[in-house]
Structure formats: structure tokens, C-alpha cells
Amino acid sequence: MNPAAGSPVSSILREYGDAARALLFDYLPATEPRRYLYDLVADYPRRGGRAFRPSLCIATALAFGTPIEAALRTAVSIELTHNAMLIHDDIEDGSEQRRGKPTMHATHGVPIAINVGDMLSLLSMRPLLDNRHILGSDLSLRIFQETERMARESAEGQALELGWRRDNVTDLAESDYLYMVLKKTCWLATIHPTRMGTLIGGLGTIDLDRCIRFGFFLGAAFQIQDDLLNLEGDASAYGKEIGGDIREGKRTLMLIHLISKANEAERERLRSLLGQPREARTEAEVQWVLDRMNAYGSIDYARQVAQGLAGAAQYEFTALYGHLPDSRDKRFLEALPAWVIERN
Amino acid sequence: MSSPGSRHKRVRPERDGPIRNSLTPAATQAAKNPRPEAPPANPLSEALECGVRTAYTVIDEYLRRGYEAARSSRDHTEGRGYMGDEKPNYSSWGNPWGPMAMPMQQWMSAMRAVTEAWSSMMPGGFPQQMWNAGCAEPTASAAPAVSVRVLSHRRAGVTTKVHLHPGTECEGLTVGTLVSEGSDVPLDSVSIDVKHGVLQIKVVVMPEQPFGHYIGPIVTADGRTAGGLSVSLTELPPIKSE
To answer: Which residues of A touch B125 (CB under 8 A)?
Structure first.
């Protein structure tokens, strides 16, 4: 049983996720070409997902006393961008499954999948344009610029990870990993949604850089937990292939820890294994890496780091939002650090 | 009581590897310490502590670079600054594009005009229902005249900022309690009135009101948030005596 399933976090995720998804589909054109584009554009959003990012944006704005309508379009834009990036990430990572189904490129081929991702990115602009009539031109323009920054940070983080894999970089430290996660994961998953919620809720009067710490610790704990679930999660609940990260050669905290702890022979074998193309890595090799991770305590190590980061996120939450009056949304934000490391 | 010379001292444990530095590349550490059989006394608690320490180092360094880039672009508005390889200064909203500020501002103004024109023509675009129902369509004349009156019982710099969502009707507006993250004492002596079509905001600062940045919602008669009000109370420099 998932201990996080009955938490107030889950109910808010459902509520705000439903609200964001309902509006999101209004932004998906029901015109031709359907077969090669617009039906596919709706595919990933229709598969569900937790709607963590839009919910975080909405809850942050609501914690300031803002009505949901003020944050809804920005939240929709975030979810559209997230889905666009998922399609491109799946191609770049050679992933086979997404949200329990074959990935877009596995079903429709790489060229069509890239184009669908491009269209989702473009469609994410529309809700931001519509913000102008709700939030005014200045705030809307600022959200536009923030969105551009988030996209840049995410692409820079993705570039780091892809480059490490292409060049088979193995001399990575924990700080390298965290820096990559800060850019690749945290900006879109947590920093941008909290900054947007704070920008809308605080009406542009709050220094948004202060959201970066909270978002970073929350997002890094989230990513490590995601990487742990990739190794030992329930395949049906997780929605992706278990052990897929090892097969893809992803530089996770567990892998970096293992490389640092392994003996010279093991390290050499790891280096050689990671240097192979994805399809050349066998099931037995993936299992060997998993066994070594268990033997050297790499999984427990990562779990502890995730717990520490969640604690730091809790601390930063108090510094950032502690002064806000008590509300359901504030309690949601406060509960997130524990939730991200408890979910399975 | 034993003399200092006879005191028992704990023998320093022999190190089986270097002191772990979270910023040392992991492979370097591993090359020097290839013995996983000799873990520290409590490796998991060390992992937690070390992970958090490393994470704080990473985020502090990231923010420091951002601020440095911001400062650099302010100091060197001509050409590239000391940190010329850094990205544009996003942290300073006042001058986010450094030397490109003027062209960017013009471009942004043009972009705003284009987006306004574009969105009005988009199929299924505007006009859309606004969340603050009852508001007029957003027009240039929607912004009401605002006057702010401050009565301060303590020596303080007072800055106010009013934000009303487009098309908000002023009649019946009230302001909620203004709170500050740096203060447990809310700023609750703020009122809004409309006289002769002018939105009049009155801020009373009591002698014990802490300095800080206070924000709160502006609410319509039917309880909807129509905007916000911020009041910054800052300490003034001491008055120089003659």
C-alpha cells in the first residue's frame, strides 16, 4: 500500500490536477491533421500522471489568498511544457514506457514524436498569452520571461546528462549530480511552479530567487526518490520499466556512489558497461549493477540523502512561507517534502 | 584528581582514507580509498549529513554565480563584464538584460503590442470570461485613480504598491490583513475607500509596528481577490545633528 495515497497531498493533487487537466484540453486543437499530430498531442496528457507541477503552482498562489483562476493558465502551461519535454526526453533516453504505456516514439516513430513534442511546446504559450486578461500585461509578461528561463535551465541540465552519457563520464561527484538535477529536474518540477505561484500570489512584490532553495531541495529529494523507484518500485504503479535507468546509463546518485565505492576491477567493468550502447546492455549486466549497488549500500545511501534533502526543504519552507496564514494550501506545501520521499 | 600528565587520552583512530570532502570528485576519493569493507561508524547518518552539506554548497554556489553575474552586468553596461560567460542577469528585474536593456525593452514593448493584437484575433481566444466577474473588459481606462495616505507613528520609510487586476470595479473593495514574513505583527490598520471616483488607501503605522515588507489581498464586496497591496516599512538612517 502506498503510505502517501491517503494524505492531504494526494487529495489536493487530484483536485488541482483535475482542474488543470480540464482546462488543458481546451487548449488542444481539435482540427486536422489529427492522425499525425493533434490526436497524438493529447496522448501523454490523457495518460494521467500526478499533475504535481501544476498543483504546486496553484497551491502556492492560493496560499497567498489568490483565487484559482489567477494561477490556472500558468499551471496549464507548465503541464503542457512538462508533457512536451517528456516526449523529447523519452527519445533522448531511448525509454520504452511512459505512464504505463509504450512511449510516443516507440509507437509512432521518432520524427513524428519530435514534432508532437514541438507542438506541445508551442501550445504551452497560449495559456500564457491568455493570462494577460486575468493578471494584466506586466505580470503576464513577467511569467513569459520566467518560463523562458525555466526552459533554458532545463535544457542546460538535460545537456549535462546527455553529454555525460555520450562521453561516458564516470568521474562525477555528488555535487555534479546535484547541479545537474537542479537544472534538469528542479527548475521545471518545483522551482518554476513555486516561483510562478509566488509571483502571482505576491503580485510581483516578492524576491523570487528565494524560492530557488525550497524548490531545489524539494526537487532533488523528488528526483532521488524517482531514481530509487526506478530500481525497486512496483512496475505497474511506477509506469516505466524497472531498472530502465541502469539500462539507459543514467548518472544517478546510486550509480555515482557505486563508482566511488567499487574496487578497481568492478569500476573498470562498470566503465565498460556504461560505454556500451543502450541495446547492448543485457538483463544480466543490469542485474549485476543492481547487486553491486545493494552490496555497497548505494541504495540506502541515496535514500538517506533524499531524507536529508527533504528535511532541508522543510526548513526552507518555513523560511519562505512560514509567515503565511494557515490554509489548506499552506499545509499542502508543508507536507510535500515528506510526501516526495514516501511515495511509491 | 589525576594530574594532566596521567590523564587517559583516547588513541586517535588510524585513518583508512582521506577525510571526505563532498566536493572532491567521487572517483578521486575512490582511487585513494578502494576499501568498501571499512565503512565509517554510522555511514547512513554521514550520508544524510554529507548530502545536505553538498546540496547547500551547490545551491549557494549557483546563487552566488547568479548574483555575481547580476552585479557584473550592472557594473559593466558596456560590453561583456568580468563574468562574460555567464548568462544574462535574470535576478535583477530592473535591468535583466544588461547592455541589451534598451533594445530588449523596445522589443518587449513591441512584443506586448503584438501579443495583444494577436490574442484578440486567435480563434477561441479573447474575449474570455475573467475570474473577477463583473469587471469591465480590460481597457486602457480601466485603471482607477489611486491616492495613498500614510500616517506613521514611528520614524520609517514607507513604500506602498497597489495592484488591481484589469477591469476591477473600485466600489466595495476592502483590504485584508497585511502580513510580513519577518514579523509576527500583522499590519491591520489599512483601509480602502472610494471618494469621487478615486481609490483612497489609508495606511496607519503604529509605533510598535516592526519594519518589514507586508503584503495582503484587496478583496471585492463578494469576497473575490481583486488585487493586492504591499507596504514596505524600512528603517531610516539616523538624523545627523548639526
So the answer is: 129-130
